[in-house]
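A reminder before we start the practical. When you read a complex entry, don't treat the lines as separate problems. The point of joint prediction is that each chain is placed relative to the others, so the output describes one connected object in space. Small molecules and nucleic acid strands, if listed, are placed in the same frame. In the example below there are two entries. Take a minute to note the order of the lines before looking further.
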Amino acid sequence: MKSQAFKATLLAALVALTIGSVPTATAATPKNQLIVGFNMANLTSIDPHNTNSIESHHVIANVYDNLVRLDPQNRGKLIPGVAESWSTLDDGTIIFKLRKNVTFHTGRKMTAEDVAYSLRRSIKLGLLGASYLKQWGYTPQNVDEKFYAKDEYTFVLAPADPLSPNLKLMALTRTVGAIVDKEVIAKNEKDGDMGRAWLASHEAGSGPYTLVQWNPNDVLLMTRAKDYWGGNAKLDRVVIRHLPESQVERLQLEKGDLDVAMQLVSADIDGLAKNPKITIERVLGSGYYYLAFSMKDPDFAKPEVRRALRYCIDYEGINSGILKNYGQVGNSIVPKDIPGYVPNIGNKYDPAKCKKDLVAAGYPNGLKKQLLALSSVPYSDIATAVQQNLSKAGVTAEIRTGNGDQVYGPMRNRQFEMIIGRTGSSAPTDPDGWVRTVAYNPDNSDASKLSNLQAWRESYFSPEVNKLIDEAGSINDEKKRAELYAKAVTLYEESAPPFIPISRFIDPFARSSALKNYHPSLVGMTRWNEVEK
Amino acid sequence: MTSAMSAATPLPVARSRTRRRITRLLSGVGSAVTTLFMLVMLTFVIGRLMPVDPVIAVIGADADGATYAKVTKELGLDKPVFEQFWIFLKHLLHGDFGQTLLTGRPVAEDIARVFPATLELATVTIILGACVGIPLGIYAAVNRGRFSDHAVRLISLMGNSVPIFWTGLIGLIIFYAKLGWVGGSGRIDTEFFGMVPDVTGLMLIDSVLAGEWEVFGNVVQHIALPALVLAYCSVAYISRMTRSFMLEQLRQEYIIAARAKGVPRRDVIWRHAFRNIRVQLITMVALSYGGMLEGAVVIETVFAWPGFGQYLVNALMIGDMNVVVACTLLIGCVFIALNLLCDILYRIFDPRIS
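Here is the predicted structure of the whole assembly.
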């Protein structure tokens, strides 16, 4: 027996010795690299003109250049990109003067022809980014004459509607404004697809980093581009790692194996906030989590029903519970920090009034409706909370969850009853970006298929609101514009709209406090070329 | 005459045995091909019936009608389902699984990247699981009703009932974050990316081939914990089954007779009882290994292991049927190969099977 016990002890000691002799895992990220972690499941394409996933933006912002960019340190201010200057004519034409020292990663000089080609591309192919430009009246038929190169280094953007050039400049700061190397694309074109297949997993940019390798749902590597016009990136390499579990991300960040951790769950953000070596950044978003009704539904077509239901939602409860760290209460379609904000209008939680008003509207036995929501967090959780809130007034919401196509598809086809969703804005610091996104609908017919407009999806149509938005969008006097948007907001909110903003979203992330010059972008287009350790 | 006859008899016997073997081999191949064909057809048809629009997944819901029609044509989705299946089969026979819907990459390339990751993890796991689980099960069986038997059963119960997600996370907290004995998530540390040429896709082997021992050490650190966590579940299953197989044998009369004859205990266990459960063990371990090769989605998620399971699940979520069909086919091939391997091992270990 003694001999057996001795053997067992010896074996255990050997095992411990073997494990102990293996060097310990790396305790700090390499000095010359930035290691970023997030769930890469939504990083499915890095075509700048054909993506709306925030995960892709991180890559595109560093691989491509735009004519103009949003200053991350001065909310709403435009700063030059590859356009060293720009001017606007009275008719709304914008003339961009390009820098002469911009080269693509192939070494070829960027010209105005590349800019024209890039901006036409999304519209001609009907790509995801096209909605940013289509809203200003650009179509596949008119882009060739509206976007053109005046000379090698002068690009002209002619207007297709009377709206302010500033709004168009804002749209150009997004991924749809990224400039691609037309010659690289020509080499990889297939059946005239303008590189649609190829560019989804390759790059043709001129940004401070070049793409080296991308294994979907595993790792993405970028290295510093040579001779970048804005000065070479401070760090040699950026590595993005697929980390689908928030707790694992937190462990890696605390252990020093990660510099930036995104998409953390609220509990992990709270936990990391206590660590002095970690900094939590909270980027105030440019849109809302919302509850929307379809006014095609005969019950929701009645303003008194929509008005009553607005009292049912526990806005504070949802924001402090489900959306802790990820949202703040929003009362109306324009938030406090944006011109055009109207105080004391919009949301109010009063469940007793909700029930009473619903009875008065002719629904003593409540209603039964379907509520669509994405199956991911936080949409499904918000849907459950809304379901519970509505049930107090006798409204039965049958939740149906699914992926983007299953949930947003019916809304885009105007075939839904209720939905939990999230809006974005092409101009996050301009009131137009907030009001137009939600309230504008110039043609309420099914045939117009304005499926990129939230108001059209809900069948909300107000000529007065449209007129105010159009008027405000076409002038440059900021004070007057703010007044007009405020009027539009008041009119909209008083009409018992089918859009209820529940929470203004926040994009929080955690990073090592040792990182210097980390300036998060408002729209997910954070550049890492200035970051140092 | 008699002697001439006896000399001539083995020839027809040998011929008929060879014929039988060829017939059996052909029937095996025929059955495998039929199974794979049915599998592909079924998966393809289910894929086309799923309420997911692959065109929308490619171009997004905001694209216009012309783009939709163009991409539908490009993907061949405007043709009747049977024609689509025929085209798909033709491509398949040329080794072309098509492209993934979202990234546009060739499916074969993606599978060549993710499958080795799973193969490596599953192989290490099954070796650990079998090497620990089988002796543990035998030990529990021969000590039936004693403390050690109860202990093994408790280990088995815990392995089967504790969620693997939790075990993985706790393992990471203790062995990675606190003790620093193992690497974090993924197959390798960031600084080693790209240091070893991709020959087999199995990093343990590739690092040895390249003579990069530091990389090899790092790969061991990274694979150790997910393999141990998975192996724990595997040990739980294998030890429980082995115990039950052994108990059945130990009750047999030939064992009682052997004991009565005074055969040493060790010989009774290993030379008599164990020999008779080898075929069952082969089946069980092979099935377990096959299950792991399908991908361990939860462990792959916790450890950010870029494996087959996550790849397949992601494809299912968006209705990427090229990927789903290719993966189903691969799983089918894996099981057919394992069946073949089992057949060979049965013949080696069971003298009754000629």
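Discuss with your neighbour: The longest helix of chain A spans residues 2-21. What might explain this?
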